[in-house]
Amino acid sequence: DAKTTQPTSMDCAEGRAANLPCNHSTISGNEYVYWYRQIHSQGPQYIIHGLKNNETNEMASLIITEDRKSSTLILPHATLRDTAVYYCIVRYDRGSTLGRLYFGRGTQLTVWP
Amino acid sequence: SAVISQKPSRDICQRGTSLTIQCQVDSQVTMMFWYRQQPGQSLTLIATANQGSEATYESGFVIDKFPISRPNLTFSTLTVSNMSPEDSSIYLCSVVRGRDSREAFFGQGTRLTVV
């Protein structure tokens, strides 16, 4: 039961920042926002997650609005290898729900030369 | 990270038969899951594979159709029973290392075609 809304597709020029939005207006206070991506013919790959604060790692940055109803995944310098479907997932990380992922349709990001 | 090996990587099967997919992890993990990805679609969680007990199935999936075993902390199998062409999908194994771990790792998947 996906609780998120994402654009179906986006384009980005190589070397530019890719900003992928996600709406999760029904998110509850103890639910995390996760981002995964799936490159063609591969299994999904974890990117980043956050609860309230903005997060950054070696792959991307996650910006969560103050009301937590939306977030943006930022790939600072997109490369052709970043072409993939990006999934935004909201999840409560306790007990029996730990590890379970309910995928929406995601955003197909295409990075062009 | 976790290294996950799925076998077979792909198969073509006759309708009415069954196929068992294996998932082997390179180290002990807390949780294992099975997903299905139908052609052109997103991933759907089938079940949580519980070590030493019956799997926990998501709505729309039943044990008779998708029996799952997990005899230890590094191995699980998913069987697709009495297959029909509608079962043609990619089946993926996923693991979470520990109860404090936030990251799920996925295998490369098993591409199943039923003819």
- Terminal CA distance of chain B reads 36 Å
Net shape of chain B: globular
The average pLDDT value of chain B, as a whole number, equals 94
Number of helices of chain B: 0
Structural class of chain B: mainly beta
Q: How helical, in percent, are the residues of chain A?
A: under 10%
User: What is the mean predicted local confidence, pLDDT of chain A?
Assistant: 92
Q: Report on the biggest sheet of chain B.
A: 7 strands, mixed
Provide the β-strand percentage band of chain A.
Answer: over 45%
Could you give the order of the helices and strands of chain B? EEEEEEEEEEE
The major beta sheet of chain A can be summarized as: 5 strands, mixed
Structural class by helix and strand composition of chain A:
mainly beta
Query: What's the end-to-end separation of chain A, in Å?
Result: 36 Å
* Percent in strands of chain B: over 45%
Strand order of the largest sheet of chain A: 1-9-8-3-4
Write down how many β-strands of chain A occur, each being a DSSP E stretch of 2 or more residues: 9
What kind of oligomer do you see? heterodimer
Compact description:
Chain A is an all-beta fold. Chain A contains no helices and 9 strands.
Plain-language structure description:
The complex is a heterodimer of chains A (113) and B (115). The model of chain A has no long low-confidence stretch (mean pLDDT 92). Chain A has strands at residues 9-13, 18-23, 31-38, 45-50, 55-56, 61-64, 70-75, 84-92, 107-112. In chain A, strands 1-9-8-3-4 form a five-stranded mixed β-sheet, with no helix packed on it. In chain A, strands 2-7-6-5 form a four-stranded antiparallel β-sheet, with no helix packed on it. By secondary structure, chain A is mostly beta strands. Chain A starts with 8 loop residues before the first strand and ends with a strand. By secondary structure, chain B is mainly beta. In chain B, strands 2, 4, 5, 6, 9, 10 and 11 form a seven-stranded mixed β-sheet that branches. In chain B, a hairpin with a 6-residue loop joins strand 5 (43-49) and strand 6. Chain B is globular. In chain B, 35% of the residues are buried. The mean pLDDT of chain B is 94. Classes of the chains: A mainly beta (113), B mainly beta (115). Chains A and B meet through strand 3 and strand 4 of A and strand 4, strand 5, strand 9 and strand 10 of B.
